[in-house]
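Task: sequence design from structure.
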């Protein structure tokens, strides 16, 4: 169901607030860990030494090493020298740690902010269809337990493509299941156990990617 424009704007504002709060927490923890550092890592000394040599031999450093991280340390150190004595080893360490903190925060925040299940909204849509179009006593065969859970129906789990040998899983839907839910990559590759069933409903698992479809079948006998 599409959100109204006011609701969408509210969600965006809430996302911004969450970004600010999470960023503040991550940065606070990072700054605390930087302040409590007793000994810099071995890799840290390698990159710091490359950054220190950058001002005297930039061409040589660029030719011999990947310059990205050392160059950022070099820039951070230049900024720090405006506020303190940049000649000390500790200032170089702070420069490297601050860059690592910024990069780490930038990498982690998008993952932390991603709403759980946002990559498979079709599961909720399929579950809503089952809830509205099936009886309370109907048994639903699913490959993903969340479908029967959100549909508030009894579910039986099967795995048409078991990933590991020896797993205690059914490779076909239970015989008493009235509805069978499959997740198909290609409409031409319909599982054998639903070829005689009636297709009732289908929805993309992810409308944007359109790579998998959730298909609901009803057994004819």
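Answer:
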């Amino acid at each position: 169901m599409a959100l109204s424009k006011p609701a969408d704007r509210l969600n965006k504002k809430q996302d911004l607030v969450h970004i600010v709060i999470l960023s503040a927490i991550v940065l606070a923890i990072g700054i605390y860990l930087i302040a409590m550092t007793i000994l810099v890592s071995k890799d840290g000394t390698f990159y710091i030494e490359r950054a220190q040599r950058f001002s005297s031999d930039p061409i040589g450093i660029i030719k011999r090493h990947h310059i990205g991280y050392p160059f950022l340390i070099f820039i951070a150190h230049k900024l720090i020298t405006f506020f303190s004595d940049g000649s000390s080893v500790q200032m170089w360490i702070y420069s490297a740690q601050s860059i690592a903190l910024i990069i780490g925060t930038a990498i982690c925040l998008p993952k932390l902010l991603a709403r759980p299940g946002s990559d498979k909204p079709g599961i909720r849509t399929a579950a809503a269809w089952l809830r509205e179009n099936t009886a309370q006593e109907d048994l639903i065969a699913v490959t993903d337990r969340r479908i029967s859970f959100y549909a508030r129906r009894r579910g039986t789990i099967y795995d048409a493509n078991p990933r590991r040998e020896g797993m205690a899983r059914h490779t076909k839907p239970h015989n008493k299941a009235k509805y069978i839910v499959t997740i198909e990559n290609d409409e031409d590759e319909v599982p054998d156990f639903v070829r005689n069933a009636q297709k009732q409903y289908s929805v993309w698992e992810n409308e944007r990617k359109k790579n998998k479809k959730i298909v609901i079948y009803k057994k004819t006998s």
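The CA atoms of residues 122 and 207 lie 8 Å apart.
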